[in-house]
Design brief:
The structure is a single chain. By secondary structure, the protein is an all-alpha fold. It is globular and about 65 Å long. It contains 13 helices and no strands. It is about 80% helix and about 0% strand. It has a single domain, classed as Orthogonal Bundle (MetI-like fold), CATH 1.10.3720. Helix 3 packs parallel to helix 13.
Length: about 270
């Protein structure tokens, strides 16, 4: 009876795994098939598609650069220094990951809107942030930055202190140690975090539509364009969705290659 039970257990495991895998993968293949039927290349020439694609690539890339510039020092501080209330700070940083995007958008609107907490200050500076391209970048950065910070923090924490001390003993100053030793050794984790944050920013919807709205050519990113195209132009919606799938698959595959490279070369 034992071999039969073992065989039955394996059958149940494979059946359950196959059912879930089919559930997750089949809709994506169906969508890609519909995109081919709708002539994906022709749909790419539609103004709605090209504008949304260009805006998404620009804003998500700018969001990634801002995240790298501001998130790297924060991740390094959390990983290498004794930061007061570290657990509280890390919990707050993780909140945007688990919060519904609509909550993030509402929080940004209540903070930076004309009647928001910082509204009077921004008005004196003649700045209006909501429903602008800047608002798109802010919304994407808000929801995507924690992915980079977490990955970078782990990368910096895993860098050997002995190697840094050896570099200092050889005459390198703090900046040279960071640039020539710490940063290259944590480079894999930093690059992985950037890819994750960029992909998250590219797919952002809820926070963007609440804080930036959906204005074609100005704030209508690819996810927003998909939502609006469903009402009038299914072909454009399918084309944009297929592009998002292909881009996301490419960068997630790249992320896996980077991760495997790190496993194979622990010093990288």
């Amino acid at each position: 009876m034992l071999p039969f039970r073992a065989h039955l257990g394996q059958t149940l495991i494979f059946s359950a795994s196959g059912a879930l895998l089919l559930f997750l993968v089949l809709p994506l293949f169906v969508l890609l098939a519909r995109a081919i039927e709708a002539d994906l290349l022709q749909q790419l020439t539609q103004p709605t598609v090209t504008q949304a694609l260009r805006l998404s690539l620009v804003t998500s890339s700018l969001s990634m650069l801002i995240t790298a510039a501001l998130g790297t020092p924060l991740a390094y501080s959390l990983a290498r220094h004794k930061v007061p209330a570290r657990s509280v700070i890390e919990t707050l940083l993780d909140l945007p990951i688990v919060l519904p995007p609509a909550v993030a958008g509402l929080a940004l609107l209540l903070t930076f809107g004309r009647r928001g907490f910082l509204g009077p200050v921004l008005e004196t500076l003649d700045l209006s942030l909501p429903f602008t391209t800047t608002a798109v970048i802010m919304a994407e950065t808000f929801v995507a930055a924690p992915f980079f910070i977490r990955s970078a923090q782990v990368g910096f924490a895993n860098v050997s202190h002995q190697l840094e001390e050896s570099a200092s003993d050889l005459g390198a100053n703090n900046w040279q140690v960071f640039r020539r030793v710490t940063l290259p050794l944590a480079g894999t984790a930093l690059l992985s975090g950037l890819i994750l944050s960029w992909a998250r920013a590219l797919g952002e919807f809820g926070a963007t539509i609440l804080f930036a709205g959906s204005f074609s050519g100005r704030t209508q990113t690819m996810p927003l364009a998909i939502y609006h195209a469903l009402e009038s132009d299914l072909g454009s919606a399918v084309a944009l969705a297929a592009i998002l799938i292909l881009i996301s698959f490419f960068f997630l595959a790249l992320l896996r290659l980077i991760t495997h490279g790190r496993i194979g070369h622990p010093m990288l």
